[in-house]
Amino acid sequence: MEQKKLGLILAYRGVNYGMLLQAYATQQFIERQGFKTEILEYTRTSYKHIRFTPWLPVYAADEFLKKIKKNKQKKTEYLDEVHKNNISERKTVSNKFIETSLTNRRVIKGIEALEAAGKEYDGVLIGSDQIWPPDAAFGNFTTLRFVPDSINKISYATSLGVSSYPYYCRSSAAQFWKRINHLSVREEQGKRIIQDICNIPVEVVVDPTYLFTGNEWKELIPEEQIVAGDYILCYFLGATKEHKTLARKFADKRGMKLVSILSTESVSDIDLSYADEIITGRGPNDFINLIRNAKYVLTDSFHGVAFSVINNKQFYVFYRTIVGSKNSRNSRIDNILNMWGLQNRLVLNDATVDEFSLTDINYEYVNKLVDDKRNHSVSFLINALGEC
C-alpha cells in the first residue's frame, strides 16, 4: 500500500523552546502512524493571499491604531552584550534543531504555488501553538482555504491565543472553521470562542508535547546533566521583576542554587543578578534536560508547565501579563492548571514566599488525568488521520 502523504502547517520559526518542541512532537507522532509528512514553509509574494471582505478595512484601521499606541508606549530597551549574545546563540542552536529535527520542509512561494501544493496531499493538518489569532481569519494559509473541499483538513490542538475575537473577524473565521473536517483546539477558551461564533463540533485536546510520556521523550531526546548538583530552575519569558525577586527568596529559603534560563523575549535590570547561574545560548534539548534535573521549576511559560508535568516536577507558575489586561494570554495557564487540578501552583504578583504551596504535587493523581486526556487526544488524532 502506498504511504499516505500529509501536509503540515506548524509554528516553528523562531527561538521559543515550546514552539519548536510542539512542532517536533507533532511531526514525530504523525510519522509514527505511518504517514509521510511535509512541513509547508509558505512565503507570500503578493496581497492575493488576503481574503477581502467588507470588514477587512475595519480590521486594518484597528490594527494601525493599536500600532501607533504601542509605539508611543514602547520604551527603548538597551540590550547588554549578554542579552545580545544570548539571542544570537539561541538563533544558531534553534536553526540547527530545525535543520536536524524538523524534516521534509517544503518551501512554497506565492498563493498560486500554495493552491497547487494543496491538491497533492491526502490530508493537511494545522497544529498547535498560537496560530489562530484574530487576524489569521483574513488569510489563506493557516485557515486551510488553499486546500480543496475534497481533501481531509485537520486542526490538532490549535491555539487562538486570545480570550475573545473582535466582531469584524467573526464572519471570516466562521467561514474557514466550518471547512475543517476535524477541528480541535488546545484550550477550553478556544472552543467557547469558536462555538459562540459558529456552532460546530470542537474537541479540546492536549498540546502535542503531551502526546509522548516522559519516558518516550527520553527516547526522543536523551538525558543529559547540564547543571551540577541540586538547583531550582527559572524559565521566565516575561520581564516582571517581582517574579524574579520571589524566585530568589524561594531559593534562599530552601538553601538551593537558583538557575535562570535567560529570556530572549524581554529584558529586566535584574536578569543577570538575581540567579546564581545564568543559562544562555542553549537549545530545546538542553531546555528539556534542565527541567528534568531540577528540584523545582518556576515559570511563566505554558510549555514550562507542560514539561514540568511530563517530567513530574514540583513547579510554580506565574502570569506573564497583568490580570484583566485586554491582550492577556493568561487563559492558557488557567486552562492547563484546571485540566490537571493544579490551581494551587499559581503564584500571583502580590504573593509572598510564605504563600507558596508547600504541599508536593500528587503526580499519581495528575498522571492519571494526563493519561486519560492523552488517550482521548490520541484517539481523536488517529481517527482524523484515518479519514485521509
Structure description:
With 388 residues, the protein is an alpha/beta fold. The chain has two domains: 5-211 and 371-386, Rossmann fold (3-Layer(aba) Sandwich), CATH 3.40.50; 223-357, Glycogen Phosphorylase B (Rossmann fold, 3-Layer(aba) Sandwich). Helix content is 40%, strand content 16%. It has helices at residues 17-32, 56-73, 81-101, 111-118, 170-177, 188-197, 214-220, 241-254, 284-292, 302-310, 331-340, 363-386, and strands spanning 5-10, 36-43, 105-109, 123-127, 152-158, 182-185, 203-204, 231-235, 257-261, 277-279, 296-299, 314-318, 346-347. α10 (302-310) links the parallel β11 and β12 (314-318). The protein is globular. Mean pLDDT is 90; it is low at 72-76 and 323-327.
Number of beta strands: 13
Q: What is the terminal separation in angstroms?
A: 14 Å
State the low-pLDDT regions, or none: 72-76, 323-327
Q: What general outline do the C-alpha atoms trace?
A: globular
Characterize the biggest β-sheet: 7 strands, parallel
Which CATH class of the largest domain is shown? Answer: Alpha Beta
Would you tell me which CATH topology of the largest domain applies? Rossmann fold
Helix content estimate: 25-40%
Count up the domains: 2
Radius of gyration: 21 Å
CATH architecture descriptor text of the largest domain = 3-Layer(aba) Sandwich
The topology string of helices and strands comes to: EHEHHEHEEHEHEHEHEEHEHEHEH
Q: What's the average pLDDT?
A: 90
Proportion of strand residues: 15-25%
Instruction: Order the strands across the largest sheet as they lie in space.
Output: 3-2-1-4-5-6-7
Helix/strand structural class: alpha/beta
DSSP helical segment count: 12
